[in-house]
Each structure stands twice: as structure tokens, then as C-alpha cells.
Amino acid sequence: MKLQEFNDLICPIEGYPLIRHDGGWRCAGGHHFDQAKMGYVNLLPVQNKKSLAPGDSKEMVAMRRDFLAAGFYQQLASNLADSIEIVITNSCANNPFVVLDAGCGEGYYLDQVLERLESLPNDDRELQAIGVDISKFAIQAACKKRKSGLRWLVASNSQLPLAEQSVDLIVCAFGFACFEMFKKVLKPGGHLIMLDPGPEHLIEMRKVIYSNIKPFREPDCESALNAGFTIANTERWQCQVDNVSQAYLEKLLGMTPHLHRAPRSGIEAVKSRSSLNLTVDVHVRKFVLSS
């Protein structure tokens, strides 16, 4: 598949289409948004921010980048690429096929998916890809990984600055789902793939951190159904990651919510381990938007 830039952006303030203007983007209402030299566009207005620097910090992004680059979640990325390849192969959607990574972080999963799709044999269809994250630091890191051909946006899943019915497939990997907004930007019959931690995800590290493990809560499906999605399939993706060293355990801890939830004693207990074997357990839900 041939990667091309996605340009169906809308103004996050008034909702007018954005057009290229003076090295940035402008709407009919006069709002202008610069395109950074790194290639991304910040479409998160100040009035929509709940803090000065929403989302993951620069330090958290760096820890996740280093951990993922070491290949510990390679099997997970490969499974995701498999799923998206199947959707695209079976799709009758017109060119181009548009993929959105909603909560893309530093772009690890989207980069892996695009590597697969660009190498599909005998498929000369056009492909457009968008990575959205509320963290400016995450998007900056994503630009360093893969700059050309993609549309990287600093924006919120709750207010995606994309034209209505402009996307064929949304991936939300360990992110915040906004099903009504996803419905708005998806084409009828479009696909949504949600990845969430399963009951055994990182259980070995969690047992070191906490004296009591909370019961697993199934991810919410009711909100998706109410928004007009139907469940196409649910799966569990599991694999083992052996001998995760102390240095990478600290990076893993730093990229998860456990760093802020765990008691000090639990954090120190993880840092004192020379290594751990870890279970990767992901709950996968695949939805289709009703036509």
C-alpha cells in the first residue's frame, strides 16, 4: 500500500474545514494553527486543556519509548498488525483507506502497523494514517520515529479535529475511548479495535507492588453499543516476556499508572528486583459501526 498524507482536518474551535496556509492551517473563521518544523500540528486549544501540559510527561514518554524499542511488546504489535491487515484485505472501502491511532503515544504501534501494510504484496491502494495524542511530548517523539507520510496531531480523543466520516479504522490501544466521537469520524461500516489490559497483564509485577490484587473488571462495552457499534469479536492476546532486567522494569513502571497508584514500598520492591518474567495479557474488542 502507498502511504499518503491525510488532510481532512477541521478547526477544533469552530469546526470549519482547515486548509493549508502560510506554513500552517487556517479555517474560514480566521483561526490559524502552525505546523511545527518536526511535522506535527497542535490542534488542542488552550481552552480545551485541563493543565499546562496534559497527557504523558516528557520523562514518561522517554521511558515508554525505550521499553517498547527493546521489543518486549513486539508480539502484541505483530498481532495488531495481523488484525488490521485482515480488515483491510477484506474491506471494500474506496481509496484511500484511512487508519487513526487514537492515543498513539510515541507511535510504536502505528509504526509497526504501517511497516506491515506498506509491504503488502500486490496491493497498490492508497493508505492514510493519523496519530493523535493529547501529549505534545508523545507526538514529538512520534515525529522522530516516522515523520513523512503521516499526520501527527496533538489533540484529544474527546474532540478529534477530523472531518465527519473520514476514517475507516480506529485503533485505541490502552487509551481513553470516546465512542460518540469515534462514531462521528468513522465511516458507516467502519472498524474500531480496542486494546485494554487483561486480568493477568503484568501480574508478576503487580504482585510485587501490591499486597492485594484488585478483582479484574471487564472493559465497558455498553457505551460502544449505545453509540451504534456492534461487537464483531473479542479475543485475548497473551505471551510471556522473560528476564526483564531491573533497568527495564523501572521504565515499565514509569510508563504505567502504577507509578502514581502504588505505595512507596511497592515501587521500591520492584526497583530492587534484578529481573522478572512477565505475562502480557491483552483484552481485545473489535467493533463495527452500524451502516
From TrEMBL:
GO terms for molecular function: methyltransferase activity. One of its GO terms (biological process) is methylation. Residues 98-198 form the Methyltransferase domain. SUPFAM superfamilies: S-adenosyl-L-methionine-dependent methyltransferases (SSF53335). It comes from Corallincola platygyrae. Residues 10-51 form the 23S rRNA (guanine(745)-N(1))-methyltransferase N-terminal domain. The keyword Transcription regulation does not apply. Coiled coil: none annotated. It comes from the Bacteria. Pfam families: Methyltransf_31, Zn_ribbon_RlmA. Keywords: Methyltransferase, Transferase. This is RNA methyltransferase.
